[in-house]
Amino acid sequence: MTHSLPPGQRERTDLPRFGLPKFAAYRPSAGVWTLTVGGAVEQALSLGIGEINALSRVDQVSDFHCVTTWSCRQLRWSGFRFREFYQAFAQGRANVSEEVSLVVFDCQDGFRTCLPLVDLLADDVLLADRLNEQALSFDHGAPLRLVAPAHYGYKNAKHIRAVSFWSVDTLLKIPSPGPRFMDHPRARVAYEERGRGLPGWVYRFLYRPLVRPTQGLFAFGRR
Ligand SMILES: Nc1nc2c(c(=O)[nH]1)N[C@H]1C(S)=C(S)[C@@H](COP(=O)(O)O)O[C@H]1N2
Ligand SMILES: [Mo]
After folding, report:
1. Which of 16, 85, 185, 207 has the most CB atoms lying inside 10 A of its own CB?
2. Is there an atom of ligand 1 within 6 Å of 207 CB?
3. Smallest Cα–Cα separation from 112: which of 34, 18, 175, 22?
Protein backbone atom coordinates (compact mmCIF):
# COMPACT_ATOMS: atom_id res chain seq x y z
CA MET A 1 0.00 0.00 0.00
CA THR A 2 1.39 3.37 -0.90
CA HIS A 3 0.35 6.39 1.10
CA SER A 4 -0.07 9.82 -0.40
CA LEU A 5 2.66 12.42 -0.27
CA PRO A 6 2.37 15.68 1.70
CA PRO A 7 1.02 18.78 -0.08
CA GLY A 8 3.05 19.98 -3.06
CA GLN A 9 5.53 17.04 -3.05
CA ARG A 10 6.42 14.75 -5.98
CA GLU A 11 8.03 11.34 -5.69
CA ARG A 12 11.48 10.51 -7.00
CA THR A 13 12.98 7.06 -6.71
CA ASP A 14 16.59 7.99 -5.98
CA LEU A 15 17.97 10.10 -3.14
CA PRO A 16 20.33 12.69 -4.63
CA ARG A 17 23.10 14.41 -2.68
CA PHE A 18 21.44 17.78 -2.20
CA GLY A 19 21.53 20.97 -0.18
CA LEU A 20 22.20 24.66 -0.13
CA PRO A 21 24.32 25.42 -3.25
CA LYS A 22 27.02 27.22 -1.28
CA PHE A 23 27.91 23.94 0.45
CA ALA A 24 28.08 21.78 -2.70
CA ALA A 25 31.89 22.03 -2.93
CA TYR A 26 32.42 20.59 0.56
CA ARG A 27 34.50 17.40 0.65
CA PRO A 28 35.06 14.92 3.50
CA SER A 29 36.93 16.36 6.49
CA ALA A 30 40.17 14.72 7.58
CA GLY A 31 40.91 14.05 11.22
CA VAL A 32 39.14 12.49 14.13
CA TRP A 33 35.46 13.35 14.41
CA THR A 34 34.00 14.44 17.71
CA LEU A 35 30.57 15.78 18.50
CA THR A 36 30.32 18.83 20.73
CA VAL A 37 27.35 19.24 23.06
CA GLY A 38 27.10 22.85 24.19
CA GLY A 39 25.00 25.98 24.59
CA ALA A 40 23.20 26.60 27.87
CA VAL A 41 24.96 23.77 29.67
CA GLU A 42 27.05 23.63 32.83
CA GLN A 43 29.62 21.37 31.23
CA ALA A 44 30.22 21.28 27.47
CA LEU A 45 31.02 17.80 26.13
CA SER A 46 33.15 16.48 23.33
CA LEU A 47 31.83 13.03 22.45
CA GLY A 48 33.63 10.35 20.50
CA ILE A 49 31.98 7.84 18.19
CA GLY A 50 32.21 5.17 20.90
CA GLU A 51 30.03 7.17 23.27
CA ILE A 52 27.40 7.69 20.55
CA ASN A 53 27.49 3.98 19.71
CA ALA A 54 26.69 3.11 23.33
CA LEU A 55 23.12 4.43 22.83
CA SER A 56 20.39 1.95 21.81
CA ARG A 57 20.25 1.35 18.08
CA VAL A 58 16.95 2.09 16.34
CA ASP A 59 15.98 1.08 12.78
CA GLN A 60 13.33 3.07 11.01
CA VAL A 61 11.73 3.32 7.58
CA SER A 62 10.65 6.85 6.71
CA ASP A 63 10.02 9.18 3.77
CA PHE A 64 12.23 12.20 3.09
CA HIS A 65 10.84 15.50 1.83
CA CYS A 66 13.03 18.25 0.38
CA VAL A 67 11.52 21.73 0.47
CA THR A 68 12.19 22.06 -3.28
CA THR A 69 9.25 19.59 -3.73
CA TRP A 70 10.94 16.22 -4.27
CA SER A 71 10.29 13.32 -1.90
CA CYS A 72 11.98 9.96 -1.61
CA ARG A 73 9.93 7.23 0.06
CA GLN A 74 10.77 4.34 2.33
CA LEU A 75 14.36 5.06 3.28
CA ARG A 76 15.77 2.61 5.81
CA TRP A 77 17.67 4.59 8.42
CA SER A 78 19.51 3.28 11.42
CA GLY A 79 20.94 5.23 14.33
CA PHE A 80 20.02 6.58 17.73
CA ARG A 81 16.92 8.40 18.98
CA PHE A 82 17.60 12.09 19.47
CA ARG A 83 15.54 11.86 22.66
CA GLU A 84 17.87 9.28 24.15
CA PHE A 85 20.89 11.33 23.10
CA TYR A 86 19.35 14.34 24.84
CA GLN A 87 18.64 12.42 28.02
CA ALA A 88 21.98 10.65 28.17
CA PHE A 89 24.28 13.52 27.30
CA ALA A 90 22.53 16.92 27.52
CA GLN A 91 20.62 16.10 30.69
CA GLY A 92 22.70 13.25 32.08
CA ARG A 93 26.17 14.73 31.65
CA ALA A 94 26.19 18.33 30.41
CA ASN A 95 23.56 19.45 32.90
CA VAL A 96 21.57 21.41 30.35
CA SER A 97 19.49 24.34 31.64
CA GLU A 98 15.80 23.63 32.14
CA GLU A 99 15.00 26.75 30.12
CA VAL A 100 16.19 25.38 26.79
CA SER A 101 13.68 25.06 23.98
CA LEU A 102 15.79 25.47 20.84
CA VAL A 103 18.46 23.21 19.39
CA VAL A 104 21.10 24.37 16.91
CA PHE A 105 23.03 21.95 14.67
CA ASP A 106 26.38 23.05 13.30
CA CYS A 107 27.82 21.01 10.47
CA GLN A 108 31.31 20.34 9.15
CA ASP A 109 30.55 22.10 5.83
CA GLY A 110 29.41 25.30 7.59
CA PHE A 111 25.71 24.52 7.28
CA ARG A 112 23.60 25.31 10.31
CA THR A 113 19.97 24.73 11.18
CA CYS A 114 17.79 24.79 14.27
CA LEU A 115 14.59 23.17 15.49
CA PRO A 116 12.41 23.42 18.58
CA LEU A 117 13.51 20.88 21.19
CA VAL A 118 9.94 19.60 21.51
CA ASP A 119 9.94 18.56 17.83
CA LEU A 120 13.24 16.73 18.24
CA LEU A 121 11.95 14.63 21.14
CA ALA A 122 9.46 12.83 18.84
CA ASP A 123 9.92 9.06 18.44
CA ASP A 124 10.94 9.26 14.78
CA VAL A 125 13.81 11.73 15.13
CA LEU A 126 17.17 10.01 14.81
CA LEU A 127 20.85 10.76 14.70
CA ALA A 128 21.57 8.35 11.86
CA ASP A 129 24.80 6.63 10.89
CA ARG A 130 23.34 4.05 8.47
CA LEU A 131 21.11 4.25 5.39
CA ASN A 132 19.64 1.33 3.44
CA GLU A 133 21.70 -1.29 5.35
CA GLN A 134 25.03 0.45 4.73
CA ALA A 135 27.24 2.85 6.64
CA LEU A 136 26.05 6.38 5.92
CA SER A 137 27.96 7.67 2.89
CA PHE A 138 29.60 11.08 2.66
CA ASP A 139 26.91 12.08 0.14
CA HIS A 140 24.18 11.57 2.71
CA GLY A 141 25.83 13.08 5.74
CA ALA A 142 28.59 10.92 7.24
CA PRO A 143 29.58 10.52 9.96
CA LEU A 144 26.25 11.45 11.59
CA ARG A 145 23.13 13.23 10.37
CA LEU A 146 19.75 14.20 11.68
CA VAL A 147 16.66 12.39 10.39
CA ALA A 148 13.48 14.32 11.22
CA PRO A 149 10.86 12.92 8.81
CA ALA A 150 8.11 15.38 9.79
CA HIS A 151 10.38 18.27 8.81
CA TYR A 152 11.67 19.41 5.43
CA GLY A 153 15.08 18.17 4.32
CA TYR A 154 16.82 21.38 5.27
CA LYS A 155 16.26 20.63 8.94
CA ASN A 156 17.88 17.20 8.48
CA ALA A 157 21.44 18.38 9.17
CA LYS A 158 24.25 16.30 7.63
CA HIS A 159 27.87 16.00 8.84
CA ILE A 160 26.91 17.23 12.32
CA ARG A 161 29.81 18.48 14.45
CA ALA A 162 28.01 20.34 17.26
CA VAL A 163 24.61 20.30 18.91
CA SER A 164 23.79 23.24 21.15
CA PHE A 165 20.84 23.89 23.38
CA TRP A 166 19.45 27.40 23.85
CA SER A 167 16.42 29.26 25.12
CA VAL A 168 14.12 30.53 22.38
CA ASP A 169 15.14 34.19 22.64
CA THR A 170 18.49 33.17 21.17
CA LEU A 171 16.80 32.32 17.88
CA LEU A 172 17.13 35.81 16.44
CA LYS A 173 20.83 35.96 17.29
CA ILE A 174 21.75 32.78 15.41
CA PRO A 175 22.57 33.56 11.80
CA SER A 176 21.14 31.02 9.36
CA PRO A 177 23.34 30.11 6.38
CA GLY A 178 20.78 31.13 3.76
CA PRO A 179 18.29 33.98 3.30
CA ARG A 180 15.81 34.26 6.15
CA PHE A 181 12.70 33.84 3.99
CA MET A 182 13.94 30.33 3.15
CA ASP A 183 14.20 29.27 6.79
CA HIS A 184 10.97 28.50 8.59
CA PRO A 185 11.57 28.12 12.36
CA ARG A 186 9.66 24.83 12.34
CA ALA A 187 9.39 23.65 8.71
CA ARG A 188 6.78 20.94 9.27
CA VAL A 189 6.00 19.12 6.03
CA ALA A 190 2.35 18.39 6.90
CA TYR A 191 1.63 22.10 7.28
CA GLU A 192 3.70 23.10 4.25
CA GLU A 193 5.88 25.37 6.38
CA ARG A 194 8.42 25.78 3.56
CA GLY A 195 9.69 29.22 4.47
CA ARG A 196 8.73 32.35 6.32
CA GLY A 197 6.77 35.28 4.94
CA LEU A 198 5.14 33.68 1.91
CA PRO A 199 2.40 31.01 1.82
CA GLY A 200 3.86 27.50 1.52
CA TRP A 201 2.51 26.77 -1.96
CA VAL A 202 4.24 29.84 -3.43
CA TYR A 203 7.63 28.28 -2.68
CA ARG A 204 6.72 25.23 -4.80
CA PHE A 205 6.95 27.36 -7.91
CA LEU A 206 10.04 29.26 -6.77
CA TYR A 207 11.97 26.09 -5.94
CA ARG A 208 11.00 23.55 -8.62
CA PRO A 209 13.22 25.11 -11.32
CA LEU A 210 16.19 24.92 -8.92
CA VAL A 211 16.13 21.15 -8.40
CA ARG A 212 18.09 20.08 -11.50
CA PRO A 213 20.87 22.68 -11.31
CA THR A 214 21.28 22.11 -7.56
CA GLN A 215 21.49 18.36 -8.04
CA GLY A 216 24.18 18.95 -10.68
CA LEU A 217 26.24 21.04 -8.28
CA PHE A 218 26.01 18.37 -5.59
CA ALA A 219 26.73 15.32 -7.78
CA PHE A 220 29.98 14.28 -6.10
CA GLY A 221 29.93 10.63 -5.01
CA ARG A 222 28.27 9.71 -8.30
CA ARG A 223 31.13 10.42 -10.66
N1 LIG B 1 25.49 19.88 6.37
C2 LIG B 1 24.48 20.04 5.54
N3 LIG B 1 23.31 19.43 5.83
C4 LIG B 1 22.27 19.56 4.99
C5 LIG B 1 22.34 20.34 3.81
C6 LIG B 1 23.59 20.97 3.53
O7 LIG B 1 23.78 21.68 2.51
N8 LIG B 1 24.63 20.79 4.42
N9 LIG B 1 21.26 20.45 2.99
C10 LIG B 1 19.94 20.08 3.52
C11 LIG B 1 18.95 19.88 2.47
S12 LIG B 1 18.27 21.27 1.76
C13 LIG B 1 18.51 18.64 2.11
S14 LIG B 1 17.24 18.41 1.03
C15 LIG B 1 19.13 17.44 2.67
C16 LIG B 1 19.62 16.52 1.55
O17 LIG B 1 20.05 15.30 2.07
P18 LIG B 1 20.73 14.26 1.08
O19 LIG B 1 21.94 14.92 0.48
O20 LIG B 1 21.07 13.07 1.91
O21 LIG B 1 19.72 13.93 0.02
O22 LIG B 1 20.23 17.73 3.52
C23 LIG B 1 20.02 18.82 4.37
N24 LIG B 1 21.12 18.89 5.29
MO1 LIG C 1 16.28 20.47 0.60
Report:
1. 85
2. no
3. 175
